[in-house]
Design a protein that fits this description.
By secondary structure, the protein is of the alpha+beta class. It has two domains: about 110 residues, no CATH class; about 180 residues, Histidine kinase-like ATPase, C-terminal domain (Heat Shock Protein 90), CATH 3.30.565. A five-stranded mixed beta sheet has the order 4-6-7-9-8, with helices on one face. A two-stranded antiparallel ribbon has the order 1-2. It has a two-stranded antiparallel ribbon with strand order 3-5. The two termini are about 40 Å apart.
């Protein structure tokens, strides 16, 4: 598996050590009139390698093992104290072996020597500073990575759930449509071939064009009209559907297949062939809001155990795709069933 590089974390490390090295070089430049090659090596080891060891042992070993994995805070603190003591002793040994470089400095053309107490205090301060910075950097980067991973997991979970919901919706729609076509074939209707062709057009939209996260509102409404036309072939006397649209209906984006379940249920559980009580569909849209409502006369004889799969499906999809951006109202009166959906596009 290819390992991804955390460029943000690398950048923080590079910036931090660039500042440290710059300050050390600046301090070295002011401390001596001339810098020998040996002095550069000593300073590189004293300020660079030893501090790097302290920084990254804490960053890469102690914090991940004792804090993040084992969650043993006291063992971590003891290990950190031991590591700091070892680092200070190593610095002290290097200073004793290179007194003229580490402990002595030139100021106003006079040689001065740093006292041991000042050296120890300075070493403790630098060690504590590096420990704090390495800890803060580690926890900051880990927190950022954790939040990013959580967002990715939530996004993947939503995508998987939406894919599952959509896979439920397609068979549910196909199941109902095939039932309708079966009724035409059973009646030996001449419209069976037209129904199959219309279903083919509808399935083409569902399989290919609705794969995008969102589609244009005009395409979605065209799909709904095709579905109504398919239902019209089912009844010998035709269906009575009143579709009223107002406002701007064009390229506004909407989640595909979000409205079909309402229309499906109106045909499946309502009365579609009563001219006095048509299925009423109202659509009002602008660039920001979609107001969709559908009302049908109830036919209790059409209820079955499968009804409701589509509505549960669309309600969950709305929660995922339009969090706090939709309003769904259902009125279930003794004679009529009305659904109203308001979407912030």
């Amino acid at each position: 598996m290819e390992r991804k590089i955390n460029t943000g974390g690398v950048a923080l490390h590079v910036v931090f050590w660039a500042v440290i090295i710059f300050l050390c070089v600046l301090s070295t430049y002011k401390s001596e009139e001339a810098i020998s090659a040996y002095s550069i090596i000593v300073y590189f080891g004293y300020y660079g390698i030893i501090n790097l060891i302290l920084f990254y042992v804490n960053y890469q070993a102690l914090i991940p093992y004792f804090i993040l994995e084992k969650q043993k805070t006291w063992v971590y603190i003891a290990s950190l104290i031991l590591l700091s003591a070892v680092i200070i002793l190593i610095k002290f040994a290097v200073a004793l072996l290179n007194r003229e470089i580490v402990l002595e400095y030139v100021k106003n053309k006079k040689h001065h020597t740093i006292s041991y107490s000042s050296f120890i205090i300075n070493s403790v301060f630098v060690t504590g500073f590096l420990v704090v910075i390495s800890s803060l950097l580690r926890f900051t980067i880990d927190s950022f990575i954790h939040r990013r991973n959580q967002r990715n997991l939530e996004s993947e979970k939503k995508e998987m759930e939406l894919a599952f919901l959509k896979s439920q919706l397609n068979p549910h729609f196909l199941f109902n449509s095939l039932n309708n076509i079966y009724s035409l074939a059973y009646q030996k209707s001449d419209q069976t071939a037209d129904a199959i062709l219309k279903l083919s057009d509808i399935m083409r939209y569902m399989i290919y064009e609705s794969n995008d996260e969102k589609v244009s509102l005009s395409k979605e409404l065209e799909y709904l009209n095709n579905y109504i036309a398919l239902q019209n072939l089912r009844f010998k006397e035709g269906v009575f559907v009143s579709v009223n649209s107002e406002g701007v209906i064009g390229h506004q984006k909407i989640v595909p297949l979000i409205l079909i379940s309402f229309i499906e249920n109106a045909f499946k559980h309502g009365v579609a062939n009563d001219s006095k009580n048509p299925i009423k569909i109202n659509i009002i849209a602008n660039t920001e809001i979609l107001h969709f409502s559908i009302s049908n006369k109830k036919n209790n004889q059409n209820k079955d155990g499968i009804g409701g799969v589509g509505l549960n499906n669309v309600d969950r999809r709305l929660e995922i795709m339009y969090p706090e951006r939709y309003q769904l109202n259902v009125v279930n009166s003794p004679t009529h069933y009305t659904t109203e959906l308001i979407l912030q596009l």
